[in-house]
Structures are given as C-alpha cells and as structure tokens.
Amino acid sequence: MFVSKNDRTDSMSNPEGQRISRRLFLRIMAVFSTTAIAGSSLLEGCSPSKTAQPTATTTPLPTNPTLEPAATNSATVSEALKNRKSTNAFLTQPLPKEKLLDLLWAAWGINRLDSGKRTAPSAMNTQEIDLYVLLVDGAYVYDAKQNQLTLVSDQDLRAQIGAMKFKDAPVQLVFVADYAKYKAGTQSEQELWSAAHTGFIGQNVYLYCATEGLGAHFYTVMQGNALKDSLKLRADQAILFGQAVGYPDE
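The structure assignment produced for this chain is given below.
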C-alpha cells in the first residue's frame, strides 16, 4: 500500500513578508483560541464573584492523515499558473511513491472528508473518472478513498497508450470515463461532461507539477482495444485522454 503524508498547504505571507502556509496559520489560530478558552475558564473558577461555568468543547472535524499530502514548498497559485507549461521531453527517473501519491491527491483526491468530494468538480458529483497510472513496474488505478494505488496489471503498459513522443516519461496517467455511474443525461451529454471533468483534473496535474519541479503533457489517446483489454475495462468504460508526468529533460 502506498501512503502519502498528511498535510496540504496553501501559502500566504505574514506582515514581515515571510511566507507561511495557510493551514499552519489556521492551526496556530486554533491553538490560540483553545488557550484563550482554557484561560478564561480558569479565571472564572478563581473569581470569588462568579461561579465557574462549564466550557463548551469543540469536536474537531474528522481527518484522515493518509489523505492529504504535505506540500514541500509554499508556492502561490499565481506562481503555479505562471510556471504551468507542457513538457515535451522527460527523464526516465521514476517519481518517489510518496510524491506520486501527492500528485494524484492534487489531481483527483478527496479534499472534503465529510462529503467525499474531490479536488476537481464533476457534474452532479458523479465522480465517474477513474485515474489509471502506468508505471514501469505495472498498471494501477487510483483509489481516492484510501489515497493509494490498486494493482491492475504487473506489466509495463506504457507503450500501449501510443504516446511514443513521451515514451521516456516514468508516469503515464490514463483518464477513463465510467459512463455507468451517470444517472442522467444523453450519451452525447455524458461524453461532453466527462471530457470537461478530465480537463479539470489534468489542469490540477499541471499546477501541481509547476510547483514541484515536474513536467507534464496532456494528450489525446489513440483508441485501441489492446490497452482497454490490458486494463480490464468494461464495455461502458472509455479511455479519454492521457497525461505524461516526470522530471523534465529540457
């Protein structure tokens, strides 16, 4: 099981111009608030003119430390957008499993545990896109609920995607639409929605890569039965697009 770290940050600056994470800022404020409440309770208990009142306790929202990765830098959204680009040449160097899971969480992970909603939107919250990951040691499908990879094949299937221009990229993401998950819409509407959803996820990949020194290239997959059979897809599942990810060789 591949497991990621537990915090994801958004950056902000303090009055001195030093950058701190938004999540860290919120945690600090939470600590201050808790300390203030506790201090107030103690003062009330010691005051001869007041009877100590029970303090209200706040139950924190449930968190799963395996679901949110820790950002390794504090790049702003503006910086990520400025650095976003398509990479045309990749090194063969593999991504560490931890970084790969961080990437997948940013792309299509669960960012609201109470509702199970994702980092990218989908029409009617259908969440019909499955994200397959082709690596040198096998093919996997991303399990967002556990933030882990589930083995589909122990074969290197990267060549079957047909993106020979990016053959050196250590990671090939395959966006698969599971049309059986739709409860509404015509076939043409579902196809349009799924294409849009894939674009949202692909842009998340681009922005993550722009902040982590990685390269990415989104492309159309040549349709063929070989990869679909290798990934054990059903008839109502369709391969839509691919995205190469790795360290840029440029």
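Interim note for the steering committee: The helical segments are 22-46, 77-83, 97-108, 187-212, 225-230. The CA atoms of residues 26 and 32 lie 10 Å apart.
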